[in-house]
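Here is the promised in-class demo. Please do not try to memorize the tokens; focus on the logic of going from shape to residues.
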């Protein structure tokens, strides 16, 4: 303990300069009037409005790339690395859905009978198997490569499910990926929207 006397002309004031308020005074200042809903319908409407506002805030946070708002499956540095790795490349599997649509449309067009037989033969015998083999090999390669890189670069992170996560993201059309890509093909960051 310091027993040195304090000089009378000490510039530091002692205490806070006002008395401590009584508890009831402090509590009464904090209290705000409660506006209870008049009936159940109004309470339900208020609850729905609050939930809608929370969902909108979460949606904006996800679109902005704020990881706090991501679903659990998208959280963590390993998943971020997998997303960025897939998004920085053009992979054959990302064309699976557009190619499937082209194949479907080619079979629906009312071709003349002799041409229709050739189109179906090319689609069923050549196009579809080539696409499926390409998707299978791309998915296996992406899963293997991402797991290997995560294990090397982040030894403390679990690699469980990261390969499957990357392979599924590689199957999606780039514009429809969620969370939205943060890197362009080639590895450059996505420019901010104006």
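The designed amino acids, position by position:
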């Amino acid at each position: 303990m310091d027993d040195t006397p304090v000089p009378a002309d000490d510039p530091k004031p002692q205490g806070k300069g006002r008395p401590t308020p009584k508890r009831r005074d402090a509590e009464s200042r904090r209290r705000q009037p409660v506006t209870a809903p008049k009936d159940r319908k109004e309470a339900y409407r208020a609850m729905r409005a609050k939930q809608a506002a929370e969902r909108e805030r979460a949606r904006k946070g996800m679109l902005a790339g704020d990881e706090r708002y991501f679903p659990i499956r998208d959280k963590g540095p390993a998943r971020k690395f997998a997303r960025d790795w897939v998004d920085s490349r053009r992979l054959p599997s990302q064309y699976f859905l557009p190619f499937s649509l082209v194949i479907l449309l080619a079979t629906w067009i009312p071709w003349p009978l002799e041409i229709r037989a050739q189109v179906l033969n090319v689609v069923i015998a050549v196009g579809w198997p080539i696409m499926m083999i390409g998707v299978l090999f791309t998915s296996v390669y992406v899963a293997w490569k991402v797991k290997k890189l995560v294990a090397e670069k982040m030894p403390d992170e679990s690699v469980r499910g990261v390969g499957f996560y990357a392979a599924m993201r590689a199957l999606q059309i780039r514009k429809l990926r969620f969370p939205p890509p943060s890197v362009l093909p080639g590895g450059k960051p996505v420019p901010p929207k104006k």
